[in-house]
Amino acid sequence: MDLSLSTRTVGDRTVVEVGGEIDVYTAPKLREQLVELVNDGSFHLVVDMEGVDFLDSTGLGVLVGGLKRVRAHEGSLRLVCNQERILKIFRITGLTKVFPIHTSVEEAVAATD
Amino acid sequence: MATVELRFSALPEHVRTARLVAAAVARRSGVDEAVLDEVRLAVGEACTRAVGLHQSSGISAPVRVLLIEEEKQFSIEVGDEAPRTAPGEKVPGAYGADDPDAESEEDEMGLAVISGLVDDVEVTAGEHGGLIRMSWPNTPPAALVP
């Protein structure tokens, strides 16, 4: 199992669909993708985590780094996740207060606050 | 006391192997299915931390993982050989040297995840390296059914 990444544009948002395992080995690929998007001027990101089987603190670090980057451009980074095993990691680290977490891509794309 | 020992070169790509082996041995020793996700995550965090410490200290020795089946509990020990003169202090090295603060934050986050996940955890470190020991209750199979 590796990490899969694909991006698409929905209105002014860029949806990054992530699949597989985000860990110390694969997280740099996600970091590169997020950095590249921000460098190319995409500041409103929706990271769809529905296809993620595993996420560790390295992955959380990359997401926090992404959030920091888009915020520097007054952008946003929203997550889509319904999986309890993944949500639990955000809860125990207190990151549910940092990231807006949505139940669907449609909801995340429509969100404005 | 049955033990499985795993040693791997301090490379990020091997952390996944350690997770898979740990989860397989934990399942076999009777750790509840619902807890296996936690075992997988916790051992991954501990190994990630050990890999980072070995790389930043330039240590070529492998990271050591012990999977210990006991009567009422299943334990995992993840040992590194990175010397500390004080807890958390690191020797500068190649890995992440351009951004040492970020690395140390990730290290802290890994420990935060472990302590949030595992009730029974001990973290020790000394001049010869560090050790994270984590335990979970288990129910060993009563008998072998062929």
TrEMBL record, chain B:
Q: Which GO terms describe its molecular function?
A: ATP binding; protein serine/threonine kinase activity
Q: Which Gene3D superfamilies match?
A: Histidine kinase-like ATPase, C-terminal domain (3.30.565.10)
| Segments for region (Disordered) | 78-108
Entry keyword annotation includes Kinase: yes
Q: Where is the Histidine kinase/HSP90-like ATPase domain?
A: 8-136
Bias (Acidic residues) ranges: 98-108
Q: Which UniProt keywords apply?
A: ATP-binding, Kinase, Nucleotide-binding, Serine/threonine-protein kinase, Transferase
Protein name (Swiss-Prot/TrEMBL): ATP-binding protein
Asked if ATP-binding is a keyword of the record, the answer is: yes
